[in-house]
Amino acid sequence: MQLNLNISLPLHPATIKAEFMMRDDAALAKHDAQRLKWATEEFEILLVEQMFKIMRTNVPESPLFGENRGMEIFREMLDGEFARLMVSRGGIGMAQYLRDGLNRASNSVDLTDDSSFLRKAR
Hints:
single chain; mainly alpha; elongated
């Protein structure tokens, strides 16, 4: 499993505000859209992977290979790759649904006013 660790996700409103003021609006919007897309797709991958894991509990085990820790690890990795592949091809739509909702919510937040940001985050 590969993780892209080059993406920073600021958590503090002051960091967001400083980043906002340092860039022009178009570059910031593009950067935020990329980070939002990455975060929502990673969430959908986790969700789909858990769905595969739960579905696998209902499938009878084959006596051909037996059950051991190595096979369990292999199945977990396989489920993760299937989930990543599925989401890369459109998934179940959860990432897009989350992006749409978060975009609507972010349009109502004023990042230049800390008190407004904290008030709407509650």
